Fold this protein.
Amino acid sequence: MIRVVLPAQLRTIIHTEQEVELDIVGQPTQRSVIDALEARYPALQGTIRDPATQKRRPFVRFFACENDLSHESPDQPLPDAVAGGTEPLFIVGAMAGG
């Protein structure tokens, strides 16, 4: 069971609590988690990654175990603590402005 913490904007879209739990078959990766999120919550399609390129949206970041995973390969295995369900994967909306 993978725990995923979503930002308020995405929680509002899918009408859920702060954290969702997903069953991932095999070694969990960013790609497999997003695939599972979009399969379970079709309203999220296109919000986290571009549907054409499958690349992460510029203002979306991934964090786990106090590390920024945003620029890691989407197919790199997630940390063991995330895979084991003891730590969540955070999907965060980055802030910008001046």
The longest strand covers residues 60-64.
